[in-house]
Amino acid sequence: MLEIRDLSVSIGPHEIVHIDALDLPAGRRVGLVGESGSGKTMTAMSIVGLQPADAKVTGSITFEGSELLGRSETEMAKVRGGDIGLILQDPARALDPMMRIGRQVSEAIRLHMNLSRKEVVDRVLSLLAQVQLPDPEQLLRRYPHQLSGGQQQRVLIASAIACDPKLLIADEPTTALDVTVQEGILELLVQLSDERGMGVLFVSHDLGVVRFVCEEIAVVYGGRLVEVGPTTSVVRTSRHRYTESLLAANPGIAASDELEQYVGRRLDVIRGSVPALGDFPTGCRFRDRCDFASDACREPPPTMISEHGHRFRCWNPAGGDVDAAAG
Amino acid sequence: MPDDSAIQPDASLADLKRVFRAVVRLPFPLFLGAFLVLSFVFIALLSFFWTPYDPAAINVPDRLLPPGSDNYIFGTDRLGRDVVTQLMLGARNSLYVSVLSTTVAVTIGALFGLFVAGTGPRWQGPLSRIADVGLSLPGILVAFVLATKLGPGNTTATLAIIVWFIPVAARVTIGPATQVLALDYVEAAFAYGRSRRFVLMNHVLPNIGPLLIVLASVMFAAAILIEAALSFLGVGVQPPTSSWGRFLNEAQPLLEAAPYLMFFPGIAIVLTVLGFNLLGDGLRTILDPQQARTGIF
Amino acid sequence: MLRLISRSFFSFVIAAFMGSLVVFAMTHFLGGDVVTVMLGKEAGPGDVTAMREELGLNLPLYQQYFNWLGGVVTGDLGTSYALGYDIFDQIATRFGPTFMLTFGALLVSLPLSLALGTYSAVNVKNWRGSFVDVSTQVGIAIPSFWAGLLLVLFFSVRLGILPTGRYVPFFEDPVASIRSVILPITALSLGITSILTRYVRTAMIDVMSGDFITAAMAKGRTLRGAALTHGVRNASIPLVTVATLQLGQLVAGAVVIENVFVIPGIGRLLVVSTLRREVVVVQSLALVIMLMILGMNFLMDIAYGFLDPRIRDKQEAQRLA
């Protein structure tokens, strides 16, 4: 359904994002994982034309066969909210404090669908019920500041799926919420995706969360894809050194049967920090922070395919020698 | 650039070049503002030493000559006085009033503001309220009441502006001063045993200094406008003292006959006020880009 | 909502009393003795004593104050010394024109500044936005009376379109009335609109970088659409706040403009009385002007409540707590 090829996003002289290939089949939930500054949000925004004004975007992003890049603002506006829904990070700030809930949820409906007033209201009520918000009729006339964080996020989800989009892009939807509330939101997203056959591009820095929701994971570092594949195989048998370090630094995400390998170990930290825009090394962008870097890493590594069906780019991957041709 | 100014014999030249480069790189509005303000001050000061014609000279036969006439670049007014001279004298008056009123008002107001900030939470509320009352009473009323009691005149106008501005300066000072007082190193100074007064004068004041400079710049502009308005109404400057406002007042009845008389003083006011505003804005951007405009005026 | 109105009204009343105290204090303590000022230096001691008696200046101060306030209610503020008119009547008659001028300017400048500021913010990166920015910068520097003179020169003298002076009360003939007031209102609005536009611009730029604008765009709005439907509403709040702060300046401008265009309002009377050293008149005029400002302030507070739902709820919450 969504195919990204050779996507390059640059601001000034720096190429922030370069994604050679990424696919999102219809109805599938794919996670885009990376630290802050990895370019994952930039990528997601570029899909719908919401990248910063001074960013240059080249390449190809096709959605259901037609090209998204290069369209005019009006055309992109038609796609947003209609075919592609978008959920932003902080629900408290994503809602207009001066507009009633009902109006905000119905906004996309009024923009894309030609319904009578009553039909719009009915649809909004049904949406609010689907995201499991209590007392939808009351909610219509409320203002955002009268709702809790979790409720606000549910409202945002309702707004995003209002026109039954085929793809939902969710950027850190639970990061700003309490941990106790997070699980509910995530379950809701999975449920909605299954029920509607809606694809989800889930952008997050939290591997544990992504693992819960997504069937496929794409790991991003420095704006480059380093490892892409089915969730289980990426997590259990990660090959790229960055993925490995990410997992090691985040033991909370381990499934119970993996916990044993973490017992007794200190919490690993990926040494160094994400470099500023212009300071990435040539070749493999991760090599300055990688314990396994070699001379070969000065050249960008080729794409390889592991035996578990995921691709990655690393000269010195985990799990021994490479055993597939470049893809 | 390595700092070897201690070694190089022509260190002053290198420094000068550096300053020059910094000046040229200034944002254009600031540059323009500074230029306008400096021109204004220059012209005003120059009027003490030289004007094209004798300031007191009245030359009725030459009255109401349009600009571009033989001896008068900008023409003459209804009494035959040279317009350029009148403009220069007006600049002098505006400078005098604005500098005097702003300096006094900011000094007194800021000191009061510092005092209020220093009194701590218990008294700060009520005292701030007092400053607020002063703020809400429109200064124009103060000006007129004063003028009624004291009689119109330059002094009255200056006094009125001072009384008008003091609450503003106080209010603007209180907030930032309170913030500075809450800073760690300032609290440390108190712990050291420094007196309240010492801390206020030596720690808080330098910190809010840039803010006061920006405030002063904006106040200069306002003072010039107010003085012009008061003089225009006849409540400010009295003959024979010259003021741009009075100039406009005299030009009004001659609107049809000699419209040019109206242009020059007006443009003078606009350019000068604009200059101070641009200067203030530019300084604010340099000194503290984060500071949002509070818009006291 | 009702809560907000009553609270604001309460503040208005308190402020009005405090203001009246300040006006009274100013009149009596600033500058010289009231009678000497009014009669002039050549006045004989007999005249002085007589006037003091007549004006009740020998009474204790607080009593003078209350008599004065009482006079506001009963309609007796004394008579003008120089011209003998009844002060209360004059003020009542002149209130209309001044109100029309001030309120008219407010009515014009608020929506205009909202529109211009938004336009400037949406066009912040190109020449259109910069043009508005520069224009407002110049607009602030232009004295309102000069603007008035220019307008008169251009429209009345040169083009002969609009009348000079000769104010017509609204209820007499609405069309002619508005015609007579257009130029003064324009001159008065110039400065205020410029200031407010600059604020709206800043507020809008601030608002537009907010997440909810992006969120609106995510639903399918273009940048302009999001700015109009969401941004403007949010930016109008700081606009009302700033406009409230500018009320004093607005009234000051009205005073000046009335004298440029010879409008028979309170401002005109104020200047004339000041030049004639009529302390008694000026005192009451000052009070009236102050009440006008506070009144408009009160209206703004209510407008604020209409605009911002959070304010209304805060009042409710405080009541329930």
Describe this structure in words.
The complex is a heterotrimer of chains A (327), B (297) and C (321). With 327 residues, chain A is α/β, with parallel strands linked by helices. Helix content of chain A is 31%, strand content 21%. Chain A has helices spanning 40-47, 73-79, 91-94, 101-112, 117-130, 136-140, 149-160, 179-196, 207-213, 231-236, 241-248, and strands at residues 2-11, 14-24, 29-33, 55-63, 66-67, 84-87, 167-171, 199-204, 216-221, 224-230, 304-305, 311-312. In chain A, helix 4 packs parallel to helix 7 (149-160), helix 5 crosses helix 7 and helix 7 runs parallel beside helix 8. The radius of gyration of chain A is 21 Å and the shape is globular. Chain B has one domain: MetI-like (MetI-like fold, Orthogonal Bundle), CATH 1.10.3720. Helices cover 71% and strands 0% of the residues of chain B. The longest helix of chain B is centred in the C-terminal third of the chain and has 38 residues, at 196-233. With 321 residues, chain C is mainly α. Chain C has a domain at 87-275: MetI-like (MetI-like fold), CATH 1.10.3720.10. In chain C, helix 5 runs antiparallel to helix 10, helix 6 (127-141) packs across helix 8 and helix 7 (144-158) crosses helix 10 (223-260). Chain C is globular, with a radius of gyration of 24 Å. The chains are: A alpha/beta (327), B mainly alpha (297), C mainly alpha (321). At the B-C interface, helix 5, helix 8 and helix 10 of B face helix 1, helix 6, helix 7, helix 8 and helix 10 of C.
What is the mean pLDDT of chain B?
Answer: 79
CATH superfamily of chain B: MetI-like
- Number of E-state strands of chain B: 0
The low-pLDDT segments of chain C are none
Keywords:
heterotrimer; A: 327 residues; Rossmann fold; 4-stranded antiparallel β-sheet; 11 helices; 31% helix; disordered C terminus; B: 297 residues; mainly alpha; 71% helix; globular
Topology:
The complex is a heterotrimer of chains A (327), B (297) and C (321).
Chain A: E1 2-11, E2 14-24, E3 29-33, H1 40-47, E4 55-63, E5 66-67, H2 73-79, E6 84-87, H3 91-94, H4 101-112, H5 117-130, H6 136-140, H7 149-160, E7 167-171, H8 179-196, E8 199-204, H9 207-213, E9 216-221, E10 224-230, H10 231-236, H11 241-248, E11 304-305, E12 311-312
Parallel strand pairs in A: 3-8, 3-9, 6-7, 7-8
Antiparallel strand pairs in A: 1-2, 1-4, 4-5, 9-10, 10-12, 11-12
Helix pairs in contact in A: 4-5, 4-7, 5-7, 7-8
Chain B: H1 11-24, H2 28-49, H3 83-118, H4 121-136, H5 139-150, H6 154-181, H7 184-192, H8 196-233, H9 244-251, H10 260-287
Chain C: H1 2-29, H2 34-39, H3 45-55, H4 61-74, H5 87-122, H6 127-141, H7 144-158, H8 174-208, H9 211-218, H10 223-260, H11 266-275, H12 279-307, H13 309-320
Helix pairs in contact in C: 1-12, 5-6, 5-8, 5-10, 6-8, 7-8, 7-10, 8-10, 9-10, 10-11, 10-12, 11-12, 12-13
